[in-house]
Amino acid sequence: MARRHAAILLALLVLVAGCSGAGAGASVDAGAEQRAAGDAEASGAASVADSDGGGDPVARAANRQLVHTATVELRVDGYDRARERLTDAAERRGGFVSDANSRRRTTGAGNYTTGTVTYRVPADEYEAFLETVNETGTVVSSSQQTEDVTEQVVDLEARLRTLRAQRDRLRELYEQADDTEEVLSVERRLSEVQTEIERAAARKASLERQVALATVTVELREPRPDGPPAGAWYDTPLVEAFLSSVDGVVVTLRAAAVATAYAAPYLLVLLGPPVAGVALAWRRWGGRGSTGDLGLDDTGAESVDDGSTGPRDPADGDDTDETDEADETDETT
Fold it and tell me: What are the boundaries of each domain within the chain?
């Protein structure tokens, strides 16, 4: 009986020991998981701290991705000289002109030029170049903007890492796929991921260019000339008025000659046939109408003019008869 109770007690002790060991193992596994999660969070926090420069505010500020933009309106004595000076200053600092436009305006007192020039300069030369701009002329207005794109750049970098990992995994699946439908599906998804990678990379590159090169837009304006209004036309000197009139006549004659030269071929083509037809008709019908000059009488016979200028004398007929009778007497004899 005593042995039986001892065996039962031993079994209970083993059971209690096993339960305690299992509880200890479970607690150890849970602790390991918590430590792993803590390590992951610490690693993520460390990576973020590294990207932000750690706990040092100066380091964080130095690692910020900032886009600088400025617009300055200047009143300058000479547009060309001011633009040349600013362009030289930008090129010396590694910058360039990205856009430019100008306009020449005319007033009664003279001409003046206005224009806008956009410069891109390295970010570390932004402040120095802006000082040069302010010294070039009289500042009428000025504005500066600074945009922090650090979070956008970090998000794009993280997205690119994720997309590239997906692309690598899809490439492995594509090589292992043996079904046509599966191959097409993986290939389609691989193309979509590649497109997303290219878009994210292009956006990141654009932000990096904006961060690397500051944009300074300068509006240059020459002073508008002020002078007395133009006088009336009758105040013009006589000699100047005469010469202007002569010039006007010459211009008018030249314009008329040029217009005639331009119009001559059209006139020849359009009016030539009608004029030729009228001339031919005149020659034909006008000639028939002048037949009375040939001396035809009413019966159509031609009349002969003996050269007499007056009416014929009856005595002239008698003389002719007497002469004829004398000729007949001589023949009889």
Answer: 66-150+214-221, 155-209, 231-265
